[in-house]
Amino acid sequence: MFYNISRRVLLAIFAILVLVPSSIVVLGSFKQDFEIYTNPLALPKHWSFANFTRLIHEGNVLTPFKNSFIVTSFSVVLTLTLASMCAFAISRMITVTGRVLFLLFALGLAIPGQVNIIPVYLLFVKLHLTNSLFGLILVNIAVTLPISIFILTTFFKDLPREMIEASGIDGAGMWRTYRSIALPLSKPAMGATGIFLFVICWNDLLYPLMLITQVDKKTLPLTLIDFRGEYATSYSMLFTAIMVASIPMVLMYIFMQKSFVAGLTAGAVKG
Fold this sequence. Notes:
By secondary structure, the protein is an all-alpha fold.
């Protein structure tokens, strides 16, 4: 009884902590600045999409939006590809070599990104990769590869060993086994990891702030800083930009939810 009540109370508090800021942002995107300062939680007096129109025409967010989409898409796809191949190889290594490789990648999780700011910047300057979307893709892959391998290796280790051995008896090599058996069964893990990577890459501010100075190469999180003034901030425009920046993440999550169900069903039938 006490457990159920305490759980509901904690869930209610958590829901309030999530809903109140989200409501302020959503409602604020349809208000003017004076309405936000007067009563941030009140409904707009006049529902208007003027802030969205102004954001597109005056905020210059289309180019940063495109840059973020390019960087995030390539980063997620390439990271998942490399991580899945590495994770499958490590999971099949039952010797000390596999454990050592897994440990080395796991150690990458213990190194904060802020520690590598100076070395990464100096390296990218020497390689002429500053102010480059390709440079952002490379650094995203390097940063997110350890966590991706960590998640996928754990999943690949749980795959039935008999199924892998049976494919080898039938004449399939490791590449064919990985492509035809491991990948179809790993859809749930790949989907969850893909969402995780998408959120990380889409919201990344550290490396664009460090490596990008040209206006036409800015990503969306870097552009959001421009809506903050030194003495005053247009919260209506800032909230509208946050709303626009959140749309791809919401759509990505909804899309990958379908992949979760499909992947679980396929794995259950094949297993």
